[in-house]
Design goal:
With about 200 residues, this protein is an all-alpha fold. It contains nine helices and no strands. The longest helix is centred in the first third of the chain and has 36 residues.
């Protein structure tokens, strides 16, 4: 017969602690997989062997398939993960730099995203319906971030006010067509030149 007793704070911590640790481990493994997959896809394309990804992430193949049963699940998750990382980069940049510099640094980060996206391009343009929601995900998460960066810099009088987020994304894409193979800093210089152009005519 079990003795009844009043639950203690330690009991609550123990009960609550295990799920939190499990969730943290799951998140850590998932992040490691997505980061590793993005790096492997960038170099080898989306058909790279699973063992390359799991070795780089430091997890087993079972962990990968548990989270991403199909290759398309992994590719879509990598895309969303990279979009989120790019969007999340804006806040610390805004806190650290003046508005126009924060915008310039964020565009450099966006160029890295574009390089990763090119590694996914074969899949993203395959017509697979698994990727149908990704363009909207991109627009919903990145466009508001860039719009805020532009508006903040324009309001501060550091850049001109007649530029839209669409215009700036298109210009950055065009300047970073060789970002995947950029070994000389060409992309960074071109983006810096683009932002210098935005300063011309600032209020």
């Amino acid at each position: 017969m079990r003795e009844d007793r009043t639950p203690t704070a330690e009991d609550g911590a123990a009960a609550a602690g295990t799920p939190k640790r499990v969730r943290a481990d799951v998140r850590r493994n998932t992040d490691a997989l997505l980061t590793a997959a993005a790096e492997v896809f960038l170099v080898e394309g989306v058909d790279a062997p699973v063992r390359r990804i799991t070795a780089k992430a430091g997890v087993g193949a079972g962990t990968l398939y548990r989270h991403f049963p199909q290759r398309s699940d992994l590719i879509a998750a990598v895309f969303r993960h990279e979009v989120d990382a790019c969007a999340d980069a804006a806040a610390p940049l805004t806190a650290q730099y003046a508005p126009a510099v924060a915008l310039a640094e964020w565009l450099q980060r966006f160029a890295l995203f574009l390089a990763t996206k090119r590694g996914l391009s074969a899949a993203l343009h395959s017509g697979d319906t698994a990727y149908d929601s990704l363009p909207a995900y991109f627009d919903q998460h990145l466009m508001p971030v860039l719009t805020r960066l532009i508006e903040t810099a324009a309001t501060a009088g550091e850049i001109r006010s007649d530029i839209s987020a669409d215009d700036l994304l298109t210009a950055t894409r065009n300047l970073t067509l060789s970002a995947q193979e950029d070994k000389t800093g060409h992309t960074r210089r071109m983006i810096a030149l683009l932002v210098d152009g935005l300063r011309y005519g600032a209020a």
